[in-house]
Amino acid sequence: MANAGQGSLKATLTVSMSNFLEAGSIVAAAGGLTLWVNYLNLSDASVGLLGAVSANGFGSAVGAFIGGALVDKYGRKFIYKYDLIVYMIGVLLIALSLNFGMLLTGYIVTGIAVGAAIPAAWTYIAEEAPAKDRAAHVGYGQLAWSVGPAVMLFLAVLMAPLGLMGSRIIFGMLFVIALITWILQQQINESTVWENQKKEDSKAENVGKKVSIKELFTIKANRKAIMLVLGIYFFWNLVAGVMGYFMPYIYQVVGGLTPAHANLLQGTLWVFTILSTYFVFIKLGDTLNRKLLFGIGAVMGIVAWIILAFGSMGMTQLLLFIILWGVAAGFGAQAFYGLWAGELFKTQYRAKVQGLMFGLVRVGVGLISLVVPAMITFLGFKAAGVVMIIFLVIHLIIGLVLAPETRGKTLKEIEEERYGPEESGIIEEEQLDGL
Which residues cross the membrane (predicted)? Predict the structure, then answer.
């Protein structure tokens, strides 16, 4: 059993490297944004378009819609044969860009690759995790997501003297890391839960019984899960998505910081997220009441944005902001999205519904990214901040009302509890229950 657990964690960490690369590419683009603006003399509309179609917006939405369906049909491991190859093409295009067209294409290609891998990663991690340590395993995926931005931002600080060439080098480094990760991911095993479900589907009495996407909206358990998971993640990510791509830009345009100082500040924020993910979500997510944990993080995020929006954006306010938001993000909506999206849906469409939800979230981020630069220019940052606070309050209310208690339960137990024995079709090996 111990070896099985170690193997599960090793696979989790290997899959989590995709999260490192995906979040890293978003923040690497953010860290070099003002350099590209100056190099190509980009307008607010062009800056908004880059954010909208990137791994932070429409590009990843398209990838998620496609990836979710493919992962449920062909297996969780299937996506890892091809996804990082597409990713490498995208980051290489960005690294070598000479004009806006190349840069835009690189953003789109990278975004599609990022979106396609998300449903596979969160689904695989949840399915391979032991029941009593599922939050911890999902937490390692979140940890990798946090380490990527921190590394990229600190690299941006170190590369600042090189100007735009430094940004190009960072994307070249992402290419190399992606190549190494692709090689490692070819060695992981397929999800045991998915394989067993396919065996069950192939039995004579189950042949011809297809799971329809309509069931996501006709079955009460699915509707409740979508309201919770999509609700908290959509409204939280409208804020986090803007921050992931535009925050260094905001520090510079609104706060008057230099690019190096802006990246250093945002990198420090991600360090707090890394620490919080490990010491709070990984260590406590399987033992503390999850609704309480979610609520604490959500309130901290709201307080952080109140300070940022209504403060003077002096160094004291900025430090309070990065500490509060950084800590809150470690056990915030994204970590719980990864956990609950893996727990609350049947195996037959677990990845498909994640692709659908993540895609819708990224469409929302893409739409708001189109107007953020102009909103700050014409309405002012305080008005934009009020909008962000409203989004965060909505996500807090949804989470507190609908959050379930699933600690220590196997995926089979959760499914039977939510759908009833007749609707439940998930099959798990006994070894997963006892890890």
Answer: 20-39, 45-71, 78-98, 104-126, 138-159, 165-184, 225-247, 267-285, 292-312, 318-340, 360-379, 385-403
Query: What angle (nearest 5°) sits at the alpha carbon of residue 25, between those of residues 262 and 388?
Result: 55
Domain assignment of residue 298, given as a range: 10-189+217-419
C-alpha span between 338 and 135 (Å, rounded): 9
Q: Which residues contact 96 (CB under 8 A, 6 or more apart)?
A: 102, 168
Instruction: Quickly count: other Cβ atoms within 10 Å of residue 7's Cβ.
Output: 13
Residue 355 belongs to a domain: yes
Domain total in the chain? 1
Residue 174, token pair as written in the block: 């992402």
Closest CA to 157 of 52, 251, 43: 251
pLDDT at 425 over 50: no
Residue 345, burial from CB neighbour count under 10 angstroms (0-12, 13-18, 19+): buried
b/e code 109-147 from CB counts within 10 Å (16+ = b)? bbbbbbbbbbbbbbbbbbbbbbbbbbbbbbbbbbbbbbb
Could you give the CA distance from residue 233 to residue 75 in angstroms, rounded to a whole number?
25
Is 425 among the domain residues?
Answer: no
Supply 187's token pair: 């060695």
In which region does residue 75 sit, left (phi positive, over 0), alpha (psi from -120 to 50) or beta (all else)? Answer: left
What is the DSSP code (8-state) at residue 313?
Answer: -
Q: Residue 404: which CATH number?
A: 1.20.1250.20
Render pLDDT for 231-264 as a digit per residue (tens, 0 to 9): 999 999 999 988 877 787 788 888 888 888 888 8
Six token digits for residue 264:
């250093």
Convert the pLDDT of each residue in 73-123 to its tens digit: 888 888 888 899 999 999 999 999 999 999 999 999 998 998 888 888 888
Tell me whether residue 365 is in a domain: yes
